[in-house]
Amino acid sequence: MNGITCIYKQQSVTLGNTLKIFRTKLCQDLNSMERIPQRSIVDVRRRAEGECDTTTQKDSSLVAEIPDGRGTIQILTRKSYADHPLIVGPGYVPEDIKLFYASLLGKESSGLAILGVNRKGVSDAQLIRHNKWLSTYSVHGELGKLTNTSFHTGKLLEKAKFHKIEKHMIDKILGKVQATHQRMAFDAVGVPMSSDRAFELASKGLVRPQTESAPIVYSTKCVKFKPPHFELEISAINATEEFLWQFVHELGLRLHSGAVCTKVICTKIGPFDLDLALLPKHWDLECVIDNMNQTSKILKGINLTERDPMVGEF
Description:
By secondary structure, the chain is α+β, with helices and mostly antiparallel strands.
């Protein structure tokens, strides 16, 4: 069991607890499999005259009896206690399964999470995180509210009017934000937008920062609008849960109202989408191995070690 697997992280569960549950379920499945049979050992005993016969014990079977004048020599076989399940313990413990998450999701976020399992998977997951693949989020918001965290569970600070807000107003603001972040992408790699180098980078794909940088939004649009509720589709790199909350908050302020984020769902990371994510009820050995086979086919055409970290295909 070695490779990349995609799972669905639930809301209000930390990524650490998600990994703990995932490990535990895999260990339970592994330990439920048939184990190597206990070894048999030969036991030689002398039974004196009048001594009670012990060959009726469940763990022993009589092979031969040899009289020697002082009693009877018994040759028996029995199971070795050296590899008894109660002595050696379970075959697998959670610490045997090494995990590394290639994507970061906050506690209140849900959706697609990429995990590297064991040596090969952990190595690939580290490269995926380093390559900064583009992630797409479905961000839900509610107009007319302001909280201290910009999330709907925070302390309500103020209520605002929203009845005059229309979808085209949101689209206009999102277009300006997207243009600003496109300039930030070139600034992050140290290339002026008006240069030939900028044109070469843009022609190859997404321009991604070579080092750690602030979150950069590459595309954003309003896909649903039913006041006071709305849904944004945001594609970004280095986006955190708090950044997406603040994005919704600032959108509300630019609309001369207020807005809080109600839900964040990661729907796509690079070539992986939500259809590949295993729900918690499917976190078993068979489904995980099948999922690894699917991700392996996708990664087969991608050389993680040779890709230019400044340019992305996804």
